[in-house]
Structures are given as C-alpha cells and as structure tokens.
Amino acid sequence: FPLITISQNGNWAYSFDGSNYLDFTDPSGKTLNAYSLEDIEAAYRSPQLQIDNEGFWKMTCDGGTTYTYLSDTSRSRIAAFGGKGSGMSSLFSDIVYNETAGKLSLALGVDKGLKDFPVINNFYLKVKGSEAEDGLTFFLNEERKYEVETSDVVRTRIKAPDGWTVTLENDELSIKAPATTSATKTQNINIIITSSKQYQRTVTLEAKLLNTTFDADYCNAWKEFVSGSENNVLLDFSYAGYMHGEVAPPEMEELIARGYKVFDVTHYGAIPDDDKSDREAFLKALEAAGAKRTLNGNTTRMQVNGDAPLNAIIYFPKGEYILQTEEEVDKTISLTMGGFLIKGAGRNLTTLKMNAKNTMATPGDMWTCPTMIEIKNYSGVNMKSDITEVVADTPKGGFEITVGSVSKIKAGDWVCLYVKNNDPEFVAKEIAPHPISDLNATTSIVKDGAEIYDLHQVASVNGNKVTFKEPIMHEVEAKYNWVIKEYKHYENVGVEDIAFEGKAEERFQHHESSSNNGSYDSEYKLIDLVRLTNSWMRRVNFISVSEAASLVSCANVSAYDIEISGNRGHSAVRSNSSSRVFIGKVTDKSNGFLIDNKNVYEQGAGQYHACGVSKQSIGAVIWNVDWGTDGCFESHATQPRATLIDRCTGGFMRFRQGGDYNQMPNHLADLTLWNFNAKNNVADSPFIWWDNNSLWWKFLPPIVVGYHGGSIHFDESQMKLNEEQGNTVTPYSLYEAQLRKRLGAVPAWLNSLQ
Fold this sequence. Notes:
Blueprint: E1 3-6, E2 12-15, E3 22-23, E4 48-51, E5 57-60, E6 68-69, E7 92-98, E8 103-108, E9 114-118, E10 124-127, E11 137-140, E12 143-151, E13 153-159, E14 165-169, E15 172-176, E16 185-195, E17 200-213, H1 220-227, H2 252-257, E18 261-264, H3 279-289, E19 292-296, E20 299-303, E21 312-316, E22 319-324, E23 333-336, E24 340-344, E25 350-354, E26 373-376, E27 388-389, E28 400-402, E29 414-421, H4 424-431, H5 444-447, E30 450-462, E31 465-468, E32 483-486, E33 490-491, E34 493-501, E35 525-530, E36 532-533, E37 536-543, E38 547-552, E39 558-565, E40 571-576, E41 582-588, E42 592-593, E43 601-602, E44 612-614, E45 618-623, E46 634-635, E47 641-646, E48 649-650, E49 671-674, E50 677-678, E51 703-705, E52 708-709, E53 721-723, H6 734-743, H7 748-751
Parallel strand pairs: 11-17, 18-21, 20-23, 21-24, 22-25, 23-26, 24-34, 25-34, 26-35, 33-36, 34-37, 35-38, 37-39, 38-40, 39-41, 40-44, 41-45, 44-46, 45-47, 47-49, 48-50, 49-51, 50-52, 51-53
Antiparallel strand pairs: 1-2, 2-3, 4-5, 5-6, 7-8, 8-9, 10-12, 12-15, 13-16, 14-15, 16-17, 19-20, 27-32, 28-31, 29-30, 29-32, 30-31, 42-43
C-alpha cells in the first residue's frame, strides 16, 4: 500500500518502502503541488487512488476523468496484490491510533521508530440527502436545495460545470440545473473547503442531468392539477408541516443564538444509567428554566405565568433516564407552555424510559390510560362562543372568507374555521355518493351532524374579508352556519435526538385488557403533543410502546425521521383532530405476533395501526413512511378528511384502519394514495372501499394514483380515481411536487430526508 506524503517542495509524493519517494504526476507528467490554489479542479487536486481490474495501483487528480499508474524508479507499474513486493505482508511493522489525541503512529519496516501523523476528523462538509438513490438527479432548469453540515470550514469555493448555478449560504446548498442539454449526462460539482489550519479538501458531487423538464412525463392527475382543469381531483397539500413546509425547524445552536438557555438535567440531580427515577431532576430543570410546578390530581403541571414562552432547552446527555417507576404510575407530567426544546445527545445515545405501565382511568375503556408526558394547551378551541359568523361561500382550495365582523381578528392570529350541523342535506353532502341510509341511525355524523375543525393562521384582514395563509380544505357554504372560533395554542415546541422506551409486552392483543387494569392499546404512551402550532418532533426512536405519539388538535406540526422498534403495540404516529400535520420518514419495524394468525411471530410486523389520522383531522400528509406487513395506514373514523398518503410502503391489511362503528365512515372526502407500495397481495376481489355488509369498513371514494407492489383488484365504481395501477408515476411524491410548484424548489430540509 502506498505511503503518501507532501515533499519538502510541496508536491504530493508516494513510497512503497518508506524510504524512496516519487512525485505523483498527472497524465502529462506534471507534478501535483499540494498548496497551490490555482486550478484546483484539474491538476492540483489531492490524488485519489484506485486498483484496476489487473490489480495495479493507479491515481487520478481530476475526480476520475483520467488516471495514471503508480510506478517504481524503473517506471514499472506497482501491483497491489502479488507481483512486486509480494513477500511483504505490510509496509508497517506497528500501527497505533490514539483517538483522544487525534494521532496516528506508524512504524515503517523492521526496527524503525514510530512516526506520528495528526488525524483530522473534524474537518468536513456533508450534503444531506445527496446519497439517496436519485438524490442528485436533475431535470432541465430544476432547482434543488439541500441542508449542509460542516465542521471547521472557514472558506468554500465552488467549481460547477457550465450552465449550473450553485450557491452555498447559511448551511443551505442551492443547485440549479441548466435549461438545455443535448443528452442525459453526469457531471461533477466540486466544493473546495478550507479549514482554520488551511487544510483543503474537495467534496465532489455527481449530478445527473436529464434531458427533459421535470413535468414532461408527469401523470394525468398532476397535469390536471397544474392546469386547473375542471377534472382535477387533487387538493394542494403543500402547506402541511412546520412553517408550511417551507423551512426546517431551528437546530439547537440557532435557538441558543435566539436567547434560549440550556438546562442540563444532570445538573439538577439526574444520574444516567443508575436504574433510579430521574423524574424529579427533570421537573427541577424545568423549574430552573422558569416553569412553575402545580399538582392537579395525579397530574404535575409545569407552566409559565401569562403563557410566555419558556425560551429554554431541557437537555438530556448520553445515557438512560427513568421518568416513570412503579411509584409514579398514572402520574402525568404536563408541560403547559411553549417556546422550549427537549433534546437528547442522539436518538441512539439518550433514552427516556417508562418502566411501569399506566392503567385505565375508566375501567374497560382501553384508550383511557394516561400519557407519561404531554405538552398541552388546556384551552384549545372555544366552544362556548364565536368570534364571528361566516356570511358568504368559499370554494374548496380558496384562501379568503367573508365574515360578519373582523373586530376580534388580526393578521398573525390562529383561528378555527368551524361548523357542526346535523341538517340532513349537509350530512348527505358529506357522505355522498353514499346515502344516509347506508349508515346506522346511531352513527355520530347522522345523529349529531357533520363537524369540521380547520385551524388557520390569518395572513391579512381587509374590510370584512379574512385571508388565510393556507388553503381551505373543505368548501364553505354559509347557509350551514360556519363560524370563526378562538383557538388557544402554544408555539415553537420541539422534541429531538432522543429515544422513548416502554415495556410493551411481546404478545400484543388488540382491544384487550392486560393485567392490573392495564390495556394493550394504551398502557405505554410516552408522549403526546396537544394544541401546538409550528412545532416539531424529529430524530426520535420509540421502543416497545403502545402508542408512539399523537398530535392532537395541532396545526402545522411536523414529526419526521422517526423509528419504531421493539415489541409491537397499538399505533404509530397520528394526526388527531389536527390541521396540516406532516408525518414523514417513519420506519416501523416493531415485532410481534400476527393479528389474524396469533401463533405466528413476525419480525417487522409493525404497529397494529400504522401512521395516519383520526377524528377531525384535515390536510394531513403521511410521507415516505415504511410500516409493517401486518398493518395499514390509520384512518380511525370520527370524520377525518383530506389526507395524503404519499410514497409510502407497507402492509395493506383490511380492518387495520380502526374506528368504532358509531363513528363511521373511516374517512370522508379526499383520501389520496399516491405511489403506494403494498407489501402484500390483497385477495379480496373486488376490493371495496364501502362495505354495507360490515359496520366497520366505510371510506368515501378515494383518489389512488400509482398503487403498486402487491396485487389488488379494486372496485373502481367506488373510487374517485384509479390511475396507473401496478406502476409508479411521476412525480414520485405529490407533496414534493406541490412544494416545488409553490416555492420554485423542494426545500432543503425535505431533500435531506430522502
């Protein structure tokens, strides 16, 4: 193996015996100077080595375009295996690496002393998402943005091929492809980085340029959406998630720059890995940050006077921390405030543990076990009074409503656009094309009426017109008594870089009680987010939990980069009565016994309900989620609407969606499955979405585009659209394509999740 060095005259050089060195040269015979800042893209790049198919060492200094062979003093090629030097097992007689000191010590040959070399492992630039299968494939004139992680980089220089526009600013890399090309080709984008000690590295990105525009081969459903065709059936889901999907939530360093203070729980009594409760230390850290502790029954409530933000980071260093023991059963920690972050050292480094299960608050009601931690506003939507009434109609997808009075509404407010009406005409419209007679008379939508919560942020007020920042996902007809209600909430709450671990039993049993008044469905719930806006959960693991997390009555909250493992439980991550929640890149690989064959144990069976929606959820996006073979996306009845299941992979098992028969249908209008990859074949033929022979299986006609993987035979008379079944379509992600259409490029945070 060649030993590489920089010679006294500054040239790259190599040796195979540790004594005699030869200069690296390019194909023209020119030496490579290690310190020159000129023409870095070509002759003066750091050499890269390769072994060819015959086993000889060769070198490139231009990123692989041209190679020269390494040779000895007689100009003979050097073999990496056998041939010259075949009797030597190693160039080095001793190798010592001191990671703490950052030093590599090598002994060259026999009886030669150790030579020390500094190891530089904190100088890099990483482009998140660029390693994905199609991470750097560009259509003509397409712009993409990527998050960039750097360490000790003080200067950058970008060398892009002709026609490419590449900029790096504030840890965001923007790449725009040329508008024309004669053929598909792959080109290198080079980012030359310099460290504080003047070391240099070249980060090479291989960008593939296609010779078509990004929408040239897009499916018909997309084309009708873009053109605004009267046949368009798609809603605009691109406003889902934190800050409408436009930017990533702030990292810890940015929050500190904004004035947030860090409170390390180990400074308040927490001792990791000691098998003792750390709950009190957690509460003391919150108190030190400014929260006040009160006890309401079994709930310890931490809150800030006047609903001011806490402006704090509660930090759990590496290790395991127990937040619930047998002595703390059924005692919820309720964080009643906004403006704070719960952060660990890493999803595989910091674990918060629930070592004892909670019990049913109402015996027999399997879903009533309390949650260990809830971040919650206790007020929510004011159901006792209205801000104003809606006095004119607005079409689905519109942004503006006309109201009776704007005296209590201003730009920036969050409000609830609300209706509840049991007028048979209104109910009939909600469940059309199915007649009301298809539902039991005791069903809530028939008895109590259709009910819609649509949470919005006010963009502007002009006269008696209120314009929202987001599209309205349901048509508004004033005659059915739509109103605007006050919506109390907290903002800017984050949970990240941490694992939550319960002790869910190996044999999960749906809707069954476990021992001591427990419930397999809900006894290990570790965290819920309730009535929050512009908040997030990311880089989080859930291990052996009954439920991963519920986002309840929230608006524009993101939960992504999540892994579920251990023993399977009841549910994954859900949008419950929320508006425009984004749930993305969740991998559910929990293990357990199959529901329909209780003697079969399966790795990766997954939670009973995969990621999805329940109650009056509207505008939710479930993106790039991979769930188990024995599950299906959740659609838990009580009037969810307008849900996008986007580029997801998983089981497509009937009766895993959930929902009491008195809360049917499972899902109302605008359920959209886009490029769903089924892990199983579905034997039902034809597969129906509304089953009048069952109390539990009722979906309004869905929109299905690009269903592939397992085989299925749909009853298309029960579908609004079934396009390209058996094939994937382009765009591969509807959410990404709609964001690109609205913003001009897919945001960096989403590209980085690929």
